[in-house]
């Protein structure tokens, strides 16, 4: 149900999430925020068990923020993702593991490269040029395989994302409400209209 | 004067001093010297070895200079057994950071970690402070090459050149005179280090078996730590015309 997307380009990462909050057969809310800004250049999208998602992502968010305040420097996207993965891995062998899937998108200001990490609730982590979570992945990864190139511009990235969402609109049985898209680049994190 | 306060390590004297910490620093001032010098393209840590007896079997690496992690080294002055505990702690802390963040620990944070531990022994526990001072040298992507110094109180500061142990007053004086404001190259730092060490060492004959020497620099973007072996130290002494006659005659 809950779909997350991430697409990297030359100097940015565009992410998108569907804004539905569902409980069993009822649509509880449209306009749910499934993202958290971890620091000025790292963004985390989450899906899975509703309570776990918010609890885990806010835990990561405040720990990453605390690091920045304590040490006066920001963690790189790779370090942020590694930290989140480590927390997920420790939770996995506890009494009740967190059941969350994540996309961590960032821009590394030291190397000037975009970064996108796909993590799942079993604490796997891969660093990928594009990624998706949820049923949407089954429809769109093939589209991204076909049309993605690593040097695309932001406009091309947005068009590619729109292609993916269009595919979901025509092929998924449930109505897809508006997606919320956010871009991470050297200037930080901002919402874009798609 | 306030002798009856000395027994408790973790309380102030009426004058507002921590005697145990001061006594620890006194112990360090009798230990052999270690110094560090920051260069534009690297850094040097050099130290004098206390006992160089023919009968000593040198199986362990060295007693003065240690590797902390891929991007940091340090020199110690003080009680060697205390130093071992702290070195072990800081090596573990560095690996814990790598385990959590998959990146090398930034230098200043590592220094802070050790200093926080040392501070604990001045405030609670009822145990004496560690009788060791450190001079740390490392590189990270945030601040480049850095040199730090910490003492038993748990205070630390960043330096361009500093020394710990015996004769620090004269060594610091020479460093202040000779260190160029605009910065030095690694080669100049190496020469300066060996020169200062030779001036402050008590012995009449300077030999490679009495010195420990290490450098840290970037090669192709990666940190390279070099702990000099005896022949490399001898070559450095020769270059600076510091090899004494008795050594050359051998």
From TrEMBL, chain A:
GO terms for biological process: proteasomal protein catabolic process. Its main location: cytoplasm. It is found in: Cytoplasm; Nucleus. It comes from the Eukaryota. InterPro entries: Ntn_hydrolases_N, Proteasome_beta2, Proteasome_sua/b, Proteasome_suB-type. Keywords: Cytoplasm, Nucleus, Proteasome. PROSITE patterns: PROTEASOME_BETA_2. One of its GO terms (cellular component) is cytoplasm. Pfam families: Proteasome. The 26S proteasome consists of a 20S proteasome core and two 19S regulatory subunits. The 20S proteasome core is composed of 28 subunits that are arranged in four stacked rings, resulting in a barrel-shaped structure. The two end rings are each formed by seven alpha subunits, and the two central rings are each formed by seven beta subunits. The catalytic chamber with the active sites is on the inside of the barrel. Belongs to the peptidase T1B family. Component of the proteasome, a multicatalytic proteinase complex which is characterized by its ability to cleave peptides with Arg, Phe, Tyr, Leu, and Glu adjacent to the leaving group at neutral or slightly basic pH. The proteasome has an ATP-dependent proteolytic activity. This is Proteasome subunit beta. It comes from Entomortierella chlamydospora. The lineage of its organism: Eukaryota, Fungi, Fungi incertae sedis, Mucoromycota, Mortierellomycotina.
From TrEMBL, chain B:
Keywords: Cytoplasm, Nucleus, Proteasome. The 26S proteasome consists of a 20S proteasome core and two 19S regulatory subunits. It comes from the Eukaryota. This is Proteasome subunit alpha type. The proteasome is a multicatalytic proteinase complex which is characterized by its ability to cleave peptides with Arg, Phe, Tyr, Leu, and Glu adjacent to the leaving group at neutral or slightly basic pH. The proteasome has an ATP-dependent proteolytic activity. GO terms for biological process: ubiquitin-dependent protein catabolic process. Belongs to the peptidase T1A family. Gene3D superfamilies: Glutamine Phosphoribosylpyrophosphate, subunit 1, domain 1. CDD domains: proteasome_alpha_type_4. One of its GO terms (cellular component) is proteasome core complex, alpha-subunit complex. PANTHER family: PROTEASOME SUBUNIT ALPHA/BETA (PTHR11599). Its main location: cytoplasm. Residues 5-27 form the Proteasome alpha-type subunits domain. It is found in: Cytoplasm; Nucleus. NCBIfam families: PRK03996.1 (NF003075).
């Amino acid at each position: 149900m809950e779909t997350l997307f991430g697409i990297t380009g030359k100097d940015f990462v565009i992410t998108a999430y569907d804004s539905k909050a569902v409980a069993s057969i009822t649509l509880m809310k449209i306009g749910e925020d499934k993202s958290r800004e971890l620091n000025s250049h790292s963004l985390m999208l989450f899906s899975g068990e509703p309570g776990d998602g918010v609890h885990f992502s806010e835990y990561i968010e405040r720990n990453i923020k605390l690091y920045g305040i304590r040490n006066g420097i920001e963690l790189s996207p790779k370090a942020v993702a590694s930290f989140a993965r480590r927390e997920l891995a420790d939770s996995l062998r506890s009494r009740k593991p967190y059941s969350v899937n994540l996309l961590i998108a960032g821009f590394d200001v030291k190397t000037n490269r975009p970064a996108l990490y796909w993590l799942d609730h079993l604490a796997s982590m891969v660093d990928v040029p594009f990624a998706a979570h949820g049923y949407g992945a089954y429809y769109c990864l093939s589209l991204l395989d076909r049309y993605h190139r690593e040097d695309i511009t932001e406009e091309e990235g947005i068009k590619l994302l729109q292609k993916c969402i269009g595919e979901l609109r025509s092929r998924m049985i449930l109505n897809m409400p508006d997606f919320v898209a956010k871009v991470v680049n050297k200037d930080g994190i901002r919402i874009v209209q798609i | 004067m306030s002798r009856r306060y000395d027994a408790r390590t973790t309380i102030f004297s009426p004058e507002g001093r921590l005697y145990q910490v001061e006594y620890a620093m006194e112990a360090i001032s009798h230990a052999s010297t270690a110094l560090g010098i920051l260069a534009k393209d690297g850094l040097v840590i050099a130290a004098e070895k206390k006992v160089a007896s023919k009968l000593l079997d040198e199986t362990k690496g060295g007693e003065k200079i240690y590797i902390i992690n891929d991007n940091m080294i340090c020199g110690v002055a003080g009680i060697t057994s205390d130093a071992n505990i702290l070195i072990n702690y800081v090596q573990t802390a560095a690996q814990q950071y790598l385990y959590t963040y998959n990146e090398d620990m930034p230098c200043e944070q590592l220094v802070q970690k050790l200093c926080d531990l040392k501070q604990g022994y001045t405030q609670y526990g009822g145990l004496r402070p560690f009788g060791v001072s450190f001079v740390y040298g490392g590189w990270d992507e945030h601040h480049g090459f850095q040199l730090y110094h910490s003492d038993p109180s748990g205070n630390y500061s960043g330096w361009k050149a500093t020394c710990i142990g015996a004769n620090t007053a004269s060594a610091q004086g020479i460093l202040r005179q000779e260190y160029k404001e605009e910065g030095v190259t690694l080669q100049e730092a190496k020469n300066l280090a060996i020169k200062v060490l030779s001036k402050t060492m008590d012995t009449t004959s300077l030999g490679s078996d009495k010195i420990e020497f290490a450098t840290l620099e970037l090669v192709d973007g990666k940190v390279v730590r070099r702990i000099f072996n005896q022949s490399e130290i001898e070559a450095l002494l020769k270059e600076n015309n510091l090899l004494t006659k008795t050594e050359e005659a051998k």
